[in-house]
Amino acid sequence: MELSSLLHDLHLSPSSSSEKPLPSASLPPITELLTRLQEKLIGSSSDAETSSLIGRVELLFQTADPHWLFSPASSNRDGGWAELQVAYSSVVSALIGCAALPLCEDDSASLPASAYHGIPTRAAAVCSALTALLGTLGNVGGQSGVLLSVCPPVCVFSVTHFQDRPWTSPASRAAARSLQEALLRAGRWRDSAHLLTGGEENRGMLGEILDVLQPQLSNEVWLAWTLLQVTRPSLSPHLSRLLPPSLLLNDHYRPENCMLGVHCLHHIVLNTTPADLRQFNRAEVVYEAFFKHLYTSEAAVMQAVLPGLLDLLAVLEKPPSSLGPSPSHRKPCRHDDVLRLMLTHMEAENKVALRRVYAAALPPYVDRMGVAVCRHLRRLERVVLGYLELLLDVSVDSGLSDSVRQQLTNQTSLCIKLLDGCSHGDVQRLLEQIDSSCCSSEVLCCLATVTTRTGR
């Protein structure tokens, strides 16, 4: 019998030629077995020995009597349960250590793919063993102390290996996904977000998972997976641990990571109470982190920053549109600072990608300003007129796809119609004076949609 052989190898029972299953009463305490297994896993000297041990641990979790597996050895029930939880946590950590990733001395560098040789195979084996443990725990039922104690490291391990990374393979990713599903089933969680935040009947594990992740939370993999699944009101109690790594990622030199950091900060703004954000000047710090990105030339980063900054401004100060009439002169505010810088950059910008981002983000800012936008009206008029000239550039730009060209043309037509309405038809009369020989047929067709009178 495999269990008898395992016990003999671990010097926990005398050798026996009997192949009959051993009764639970004749078995040593499970905590003693788990301690020996932990020592063996940590001290294994070869991949073959490690793989054999992992396989035998998996078989143990699959075939042993669940009552024996999860029964405390001590007569002191409280102390016995604590000892059992520590024993399982230790053996789970030892299993996970068998597929540990090599460390990189430089945080800004990455290891070559060869550094991860053998890890996908070991990770798949560890996932199978842990899935067997969770399957047995799930059959026992309920969120037991053992399950809650092993959940954080198991969750982190599965997330590490179910993503497409240099240290994973299709087989290890599939095994890690199966492990994550087994964890959710065992704890009666609906999905990963429910696992993190919990509910009325199920305890959330966010705090414990952050304890495991804390040394690595600046890594974009962990931060994005954890933070973006936590919503209000569960995020506020952990804000002091999630905001600093988000700010670090926001400053990353790679645009894709920087953009992810912006998304994380925006998620924090949307899912944290204004009072918590304003406490300790957190909102001010996030504002400065966002504001400096207004000088970026990366369209994708700008596209993420502008909506986040608009939502943050509502936390920092009252919208200018909500302020009633006042006998005193209205003092400039952060809304003015942001809109002024936006319009300055919009006026000088010549990249189509950035112009599209600015044009899409401008209307919400103008709405937020209300009548206070009059302070910026001259610059705003120049920007609108300058961006309408974009129609001529679009008509001759061979680098744009037909769909993008058509979209820009339609938006330009709409802007001209709105300007015509604001000027009581003056724009339409001016457009009728344009010399058709100076424009392409595409531009003339666009202008025709405006100059055609509709009986108004």
UniProtKB/TrEMBL annotation:
<protein>
    <submittedName>
        <fullName>TELO2-interacting protein 2</fullName>
    </submittedName>
</protein>
<feature type="region of interest" description="Disordered">
    <location>
        <begin position="1"/>
        <end position="25"/>
    </location>
</feature>
<dbReference type="InterPro" id="IPR018870">
    <property type="entry name" value="Tti2"/>
</dbReference>
<comment type="similarity">
    <text>Belongs to the TTI2 family.</text>
</comment>
<dbReference type="GO" id="GO:0110078">
    <property type="term" value="C:TTT Hsp90 cochaperone complex"/>
</dbReference>
<dbReference type="GO" id="GO:0005829">
    <property type="term" value="C:cytosol"/>
</dbReference>
<dbReference type="GO" id="GO:0005634">
    <property type="term" value="C:nucleus"/>
</dbReference>
